[in-house]
């Protein structure tokens, strides 16, 4: 991959490669969303993955691992949407450099366009720069979207998250948590809660708990087959270090599995993907012990960091997911803000599609607020 900085006014030469070739070539430091493993998983969900190599590109660009990246295509009625998760690697910068990043995205899209289906609405980039304040992030994105041909896009991955650096010792990781979080970990152990790694055959246990969580918290979830497929893809590709290790953790008490999480580990990062809990034994603090076990295992695996994967943008008690913000920030990680998505439109139908997306998002937020009340 390449890191982007400065203006890009020349063309980019690309070549398309097969999924198998991408599998052979991709380096260990790949983000899991850019891995061939994730592409195969999304392919099973109806997406079409494409992989490309950059043969040549305009300066100034800094090498960042291998020069390949994934594009995921999704059908939208009679059109298509091209989605590029967390690529290219753009370092945080000020507003003056944002226009250079925007120019590079438009040049990259021009190179991609011949490989995309006719009727592709846009190329949607989930951006990589990580800022420490939401204000810095918003200013940078505003400057980026002033680049001709770049538009603000609907979010796909959570733009705001909490990331733990796993380089310190376990004792240091514990010391960085809020004292109440350390207390809750010990309390769960004192109450006799145990955490073990589940098997792919126990996805049914996780899904039953997840369905309860969805009803309680008013969240949408996929079918059981979606999560089963994630574990099946991991099992198919198990034993190869550069492919992610997907793990199910079950919290039990008295033989009863009453809470669970799903985490993913790869050399670059660990990620907390899904969490579920029953309506009983809520005061046993299993969620804290589950996360602590996953954090410790991610460190042992060799992950550089552990991403708790998604929080509200700030500590606003009025936000319907404020409890999630408090829970995840208590583990002592850094709160980071990414710009989310930008689009490079390729079709005259793009404005209509964005209007439909905005309307759907409005009603989704309205329903969530009503549920929160």
Keywords:
373 residues, 7-stranded mixed β-sheet, alpha+beta, single chain, globular
Number of helices: 11
Q: How would you name the oligomeric state of the polypeptide chains in this document?
A: single chain
Helix proportion? 25-40%
Largest sheet composition: 7 strands, mixed
Mean pLDDT: 89
Q: Would you report the number of β strands?
A: 16
What is the 3D form? globular
Strand order of the largest sheet: 2-3-5-6-7-16-8
Describe the structure.
This protein has 373 residues and is an alpha+beta fold. The protein is 37% helix and 25% strand. It contains eleven helices and 16 strands. Strands 2-3-5-6-7-16-8 form a seven-stranded mixed sheet, with helices on both faces. A seven-stranded mixed sheet has the order 10-11-12-13-14-9-15, with helices on both faces. Strands 1-4 form a two-stranded antiparallel sheet. Helix 3 links the parallel strand 6 and strand 7. Helix 6 crosses helix 9. The longest helix has 23 residues. It is globular, with a radius of gyration of 21 Å. The N terminus is likely disordered.
Tell me briefly what this model is.
The protein is α+β, with helices and mostly antiparallel strands and 373 residues long. It has helices spanning 19-25, 36-44, 95-112, 134-144, 170-176, 179-190, 203-217, 224-236, 286-301, 322-329, 350-372, and strands at residues 2-4, 13-17, 48-56, 61-63, 68-76, 79-85, 120-126, 151-152, 160-165, 194-197, 245-253, 256-265, 270-277, 305-307, 334-337, 341-345.
Q: Helix and strand layout, with pairings?
A:
Elements: E1 2-4, E2 13-17, H1 19-25, H2 36-44, E3 48-56, E4 61-63, E5 68-76, E6 79-85, H3 95-112, E7 120-126, H4 134-144, E8 151-152, E9 160-165, H5 170-176, H6 179-190, E10 194-197, H7 203-217, H8 224-236, E11 245-253, E12 256-265, E13 270-277, H9 286-301, E14 305-307, H10 322-329, E15 334-337, E16 341-345, H11 350-372
Parallel strand pairs: 6-7, 13-14
Antiparallel strand pairs: 1-4, 2-3, 3-5, 5-6, 7-16, 8-16, 9-14, 9-15, 10-11, 11-12, 12-13
Helix pairs in contact: 1-2, 2-8, 3-4, 6-9
